[in-house]
Amino acid sequence: MSTKDTTFVYCDGSSRGNPGPAAIGVSFQNNEGMEFHFLSEKIGNATNNVAEWNALSRGMEEAIRQSIKKIKFRLDSELVVKQMKGEYKVKNKDLMVFKTKCDQLKNSFESFDIQYIPREQNARADQLANFAQDSKP
Fold it and tell me: The domain 7-134: what is its CATH number?
């Protein structure tokens, strides 16, 4: 993949019980929508919002690990997107930890974008989160 290409990263977190058993799904896709890497991980007990933030954070860390420089994150969590953009304040201290970390990670990219998408456009990340939820320990 050339450095001119933008990577699209679809992130989703799920919690069964809110709080309850939680997992994340992250799909890395090229400009043509072809997935070239993914994460599907249990994260222990968490709220849905913590799971969503965790998915973004892990996606950012993995992108940095892979030396991806131009990135566009896509999430179906309007709360996380608006908090990340500074449109909503982060009042919860647990979420503030993620916001601070993601703000720092953001500086590692030449180009960073984050956008809210409808849930149906985030099906692969949702599938990955559910796969982790349903997998045996």
Answer: 3.30.420.10
- Residue spans of the domains in the chain: they are 7-134
Q: Is 84 exposed, middle or buried (0-12, 13-18, 19+ CB in 10 A)?
A: buried
Helix (H, G, I), strand (E, B) or coil at 54: helix
* Confidence (pTM): 0.95
pLDDT tens digits, one per residue of 27-60:
999 999 999 999 999 999 999 999 999 999 999 9
Per-residue CA distances from 41 to 8, 90, 112 (Å) = 19, 25, 24
First to last CA, the chain: 34
